[in-house]
Amino acid sequence: PRARRRRPLPALLALCALLAPLQVSLQVAPPCASDRHYEHAGRCCRKCEPGKYLSSKCTTTTDSVCLSCGPDEYLDTWNEEDKCLLHKVCDTGKALVAVDPGNSTAPRRCACTAGYHWSQDCECCRRNAECAPGFGAQHPLQLNKDTVCKPCQAGYFSDTFSAMDRCKPWTNCTILGKIEERHGTEKSDVVCSSSLPSRKPPNEPEVYLPSLIILLLFISVAIVAAVIFVVYYRKQGKALTANLWHWVNEACGRLSGNKEM
Ligand SMILES: *[C@@H]1O[C@H](CO)[C@@H](O)[C@H](O)[C@H]1NC(C)=O
Ligand SMILES: *[C@@H]1O[C@H](CO)[C@@H](O)[C@H](O)[C@H]1NC(C)=O
After folding, report:
1. Which residues pair with 110 in a beta bridge?
2. Do 126 and 85 sit in the same domain of this protein?
3. Helix, strand or coil, per DSSP, at residue 53
4. Which of 103, 109, 110 maximizes ligand 1 atoms within 8 Å of its Cβ, making it the mutation to test the pocket?
5. Is residue 135, in this structure, part of any structural domain at all?
6. How far, CA to CA in Å, does 15 sit from each of 7, 8, 24, 64?
7. Containing domain of residue 171, as a range?
8. Which of 85, 104, 129, 206 is the most buried (most CB within 10 A)?
9. Interval between CA 162 and ligand 2 midpoint (Å)
């Protein structure tokens, strides 16, 4: 190992001797290797940190003079700028809103307001597309992204143009105690009948049963009366009719008598 080390030494010394004058000149005007330094007045001077701008460059005797950015201004890099950059405006009239207000070291960031998305074509915010009937908007809705429309699955429908609404489930007629009158489609809801099929049939007997009982009672009373009458008539039928006639005549006679008087 020793032999190896010693061999390049003479060559290295010779190189140093050659570079010696160059080294002197480099010390006079040193290269600004760091991106946080700049070269001026034969010196390597410090750049300004983010949030500050270069008010005065360095001189042979003084350092850089950096000053803070004003309100609504920023610089996000180590710089030698003579002024800060102005924050951009998130124009609500162009459907823009600030998602990050920014500060002296970071730019303000704008995004399109809800219901709009950024379009590269016009470099502006465009209104999100509406899904046609039969289609629903995919959720969760992505801010600053155009609507993704999906066809409604079986059992779901959408009957409107909407950029936000999902497909809605069909109405369950069974739960409402109704029957399905019309099937649902991807564009229309199920139509339930307004009648109550499972409750009306038991309702009918409830209504008719009392009247039926009364009718049966009436008929049985009439039959019993008829039977009694027949039995009675057979025993003393003629006497009864005679009595009846007598009573009728008497009643009529009284009535006519009253009229005559
Ligand atoms: C400026 O905003 C940036 C990005 O939001 C953040 O990282 C940084 O800490 C903020 N600086 C100050 C001084 O508030
Ligand atoms: C309606 O709801 C009932 C009870 O939750 C369920 O059993 C039935 O499958 C549903 N019908 C439809 C058409 O979704």
Report:
1. 98
2. no
3. strand
4. 103
5. yes
6. 14, 11, 15, 37
7. 114-196
8. 104
9. 27
CATH label of the domain that carries residue 39: 2.10.50.10
Measured distance CA(257)–CA(187) in Å, rounded: 88
Name residues whose C-beta falls within 8 Å of residue 70's C-beta, 6 or more positions apart in sequence.
Answer: 84
Closest ligand to residue 173's CA: 2
Both 132 and 84 in one domain: the answer is no
Provide the token pair at 182.
């019309």
Cβ–ligand 2 contact at 174 (below 6 Å): yes
Residue 248 pLDDT greater than 70, yes or no:
no
Residue 211 lies in a domain: no
Quick check: 196 pLDDT over 70?
no
Q: Letter for the amino acid at 249?
A: N
Looking at the CA of 69, name the nearest ligand. 1
Judgement on whether residues 185 and 121 belong to the same structural domain of the protein: yes
- Please give the share of the chain, as a percent, with pLDDT higher than 70: 74
* Strand 149-151 versus strand 135-137 pairing type: antiparallel
Q: Which of helix, strand or coil describes residue 152?
A: coil
Q: Whose CA is nearest to atom 14 of ligand 2?
A: 172
| Domain finish residue from 179, 196, 213 | 196
Q: Is the pLDDT of residue 212 over 70?
A: yes
The tokens of 67 are what? 């000053």
In the numeric block, which tokens belong to residue 195? 């009648």
**What is the CA(118)–ligand 1 centre distance, in A?**
25
pTM (two decimals): 0.51
100: Cβ below 6 Å to ligand 1? yes
Over the stretch 143-158, which tens digit does the pLDDT of each residue have? 889 999 999 999 999 9
Partners of residue 98 on adjacent β-strands: 110
Residue 127 falls within a domain, yes or no? yes
